[in-house]
Amino acid sequence: MIFVTGGAGFIGSNFILDWLANDAAEPVLNIDKLTYAGNPYNLASVADDPRYAFVQADICDEIAMATLLSRYRPRAIVHFAAESHVDRSIHSPDEFIRTNVNGTFNLLNKALRYWQTLPQDEQQDFRFLHVSTDEVYGSLLPDDPPFSETTTYAPNSPYSASKAASDHLVRAFHHTYGLPTLTTNCSNNYGPYHFPEKLIPLVIANALAGNPLPIYGDGLQIRDWLFVADHCAALRTVLADGKTGETYNVGGWNEQTNLHVVHTLCDTLDALSPRAGGSYRDLITFVKDRPGHDRRYAIDARKLERELGWKPAETFDSGIRKTVQWYLDHGDWVAQVRSGAYMNWIQKQYGDNPPGALV
Ligand code: NAD
Ligand code: DAU
Predict the structure, then answer these.
(1) CA 85/CA 262 separation, integer angstroms
(2) Which atom of ligand 2 is found nearest the CA of 160?
(3) What DSSP line would sit under 324-338, residue for residue?
(4) Where would I find the NAD(P)-binding domain in this sequence (predicted)?
């Protein structure tokens, strides 16, 4: 069995669906607190799969983490659980420190104690895969080379600072205690089940509702976009073949300004679901910039390609087209998430036992 923390969120649920699509996959226990960002409805299609189980728990909960580890004896932990939205971290950083720093520390601590009880062969097979972000490296100038695994950490937001702290704890647990850890630092993901507070799903959802498309500042900030399925494939690769104690950068070789991203989304929507009375571009509205806004991120993913043979399969155009089509086909998902109704749906349908819940 593997544990997945934060498996009801955007990347975690894509990872679990992807993992279970392989018939030979080890079972998964999804451990998620179900914050506003966690939606077990994402996993309704695997709720009856005997290889999937869900438990609602907080990674900060010492007893819960220790109990789950000793009861289910995982071969690996894939750690996604986090507060993930930069804007929220600016307005209320407390929860970011609690979950991303203290929660990761608690999980590491309990994982270490569990790992120390394992027989030697199981110790050797065990992996703690920490899923982190390129934002720990700070912001690039226009002519800087992309972030590599040796770039100095320089986090600028409370979110990136909390993730940087968690990366350092993971490193320390490997270096000091020998816990077999792996860390990945990935660029901006996009794709199905992306919570519509983040740029791409927000723009699609607002456009379809006829609402303004907010662009922070001049819109010329650059992100390196990666289709979420490519990130999931990278994580499977690192989990299977990564060298313990190492970090791997994951990115799409796909730097785009925010303005270009929004234009591409508008043009794709114009083609797939035309709007009466004009282009979706007419809804673009420039708004006040994000405080401390990082100007440019870009990932050098050559280590992962050279050492483990991973590279992204999707281009930006094909990935964006798939993503827009997914949102057009899943208007019910967007409506539920935006209204908060998915929380009521879970309660009504399952009481305290969301899909796949252990009873
Ligand atoms: P998300 O916000 O969509 O999901 C986070 C999940 O974690 C939710 O299901 C939430 O309920 C759960 N969670 C939060 N606090 C918890 C706690 N205390 N205990 C248990 N569960 C808790 O996030 P995401 O975009 O899917 O990101 C997942 C991970 O990947 C994060 O660690 C993030 O830093 C990292 N990451 C994200 C991106 C990206 O572009 N989204 C890129 C690189 C790295
Ligand atoms: O780089 C990886 C990171 O990417 C992850 O670690 C984070 O969890 C994830 O949220 C994401 O962070 P960003 O801040 O880059 O993503 P976001 O979608 O919030 O914003 C992308 C860019 O778009 C950023 O430059 C801010 C801008 N933006 C965002 C929103 C929500 C806008 O211009 N308007 C908006 O309404």
Answers:
(1) 19
(2) 6
(3) HHHHHHTHHHHHHHH
(4) 3-323
Q: Domain ranges for the chain, please list them.
A: 2-190+227-253+294-314
For a mutational test of ligand 2's pocket, the pick from 87, 88, 193, 199, i.e. the residue with the most ligand atoms closer than 8 A to its C-beta, is: 199
Task: List the chain residues with pLDDT less than 50.
Answer: 359
Nearest residue to 20 (alpha-carbon basis) of 43, 44, 61, 51: 51
Position 345 scores a pLDDT of: 56
Q: Whose CA is nearest to atom 28 of ligand 2?
A: 199
State in Å: Cα 86 to ligand 2 middle: 7
What's 20-85 look like in SS3?
A: HCCCCCCCEEEEECCCCCCCHHHHHHHCCCCCEEEEECCCCCHHHHHHHHHHHCCCEEEECCCCCC
Contacts (Cβ under 8 Å, ≥6 apart) of 7? 13, 15, 16, 28, 30, 31, 32, 43, 54, 80
The rounded Cα 71 to chain-centroid distance in angstroms is: 27
| Atom of ligand 1 lying closest to residue 189 CA | 40
Give the percent of the chain with pLDDT over 90.
Answer: 91
Q: Is 250 in the pocket of ligand 2 (CB under 6 A)?
A: no
Q: Give yes or no for a contact between 219 and 259, defined as CB atoms under 8 angstroms apart.
A: yes
86-103 pLDDT per residue, tens: 999 999 999 999 999 999
Ligand having the closest approach to the CA of 78: 1
Q: What percent of the chain has pLDDT over 70?
A: 95
The pLDDT assigned to 339 comes to 79
d(Cα 177, Cα 171) in Å, to the nearest integer? 10
What's the token pair of residue 84?
């993930």
pTM over 0.85? The answer is yes
**Catalytic residue numbers, as ranges:** 134-135, 159
Q: Which atom of ligand 2 is nearest to the CA of 203?
A: 36
* The CATH fold of domain 2-190+227-253+294-314: Rossmann fold (3.40.50)
> What confidence score (pLDDT) does residue 338 get?
81
For the Cβ of 187 lying below 6 angstroms from any atom of ligand 2, the answer is yes
